Amino acid sequence: xxxxxxxxxxxxxxxxxxxxxxxxxxxxxxxxxxxxxxxxxxxxxxxxxxxxxxxxxxxxxxxxxxxxxxxxxxxxxxxxxxxxxxxxxxxxxxxxxxxxxxxxxxxxxxxxxxxxxxxxxxxxxxxxxxxxxxxxxxxxxxxxxxxxxxxxxxxxxxxxxxxxxxxxxxxxxxxxxxxxxxxxxxxxxxxxxxxxxxxxxxxxxxxxxxxxxxxxxxxxxxxxxxxxxxxxxxxxxxxxxxxxxxxxxxxxxxxxxxxxxxxxxxxxxxxxxxxxxxxxxxxxxxxxxxxxxxxxxxxxxxxxxxxxxxxxxxxxxxxxxxxxxxxxxxxxxxxxxxxxxxxxxxxxxxxxxxxxxxxx
Length: 360
Description:
By secondary structure, the protein is α/β, with parallel strands linked by helices. The protein has 12 helices and 7 strands. Helix 4 (83-94) runs parallel beside helix 6.
């Protein structure tokens, strides 16, 4: 294992040299100490409803700039990011001089390429393009702290076992793979947002699986955060803010029903407390709830698979199991308020748990 680590370190050095054209000075990256506060940011909430707005204010939550890859569809095919499209979208949706926190959500083919690492034929091309785009966006919007969504990753099942119960060698190999693959981009980010969503609904498990996942949910999330800190340590990088991407809704993929509201106890235990325990600087709530609400309230279309999936879920969570008239403006307002309250409640829960942790 020691020889393996030395080899990987040598490769990392070569990778840094490949991309040294973009220095930290050029990118205006300033070391940031971990905050004494817990920062909560969100992608959307129904702030037109006073109840939602008041909760967000109580949690000192603020909206972040979020740019999705769909504004740059060619990137998924070419591995090249069009920074001009990003800049135009920021101008159109957030104005000419936004501030605060910003996230660029470019996943395809980048995650696949970085999971393979430097041996992937597109590795250098993808990394250089992401770095150049980041440089361009920072120059265009210097008052925003920028990151790429979800970087780095971490397998939930290294060696085919839950993270907490996997062999140490399998865990270490996974950590090495993530650091090696994402290293060029990790070095330039202003802050980090590894995603730690809940994809497993423990209420849908047998007791034995529940017991295993109760241990794993916390250990996996802490491990994912610590990959970033290990990267800093190896590369002598001063700490920068870590605000993992979280959600008050299950995101599917595991045994959960995507977009279903997560019960409060599970939400706090599996997403909020691991972040506080590992001394993260805050959290970035993602839900895309405005888009899902739009899909649900469009005229009925049997070919709209998102609409057909999401309506029964919203019906159960926000309309007492009774199907509403989805195109009624009052129904849309009720749905927005319900979704907004779920998001704002998570922000409040996080601040309450953080404040309680300081007392202990």
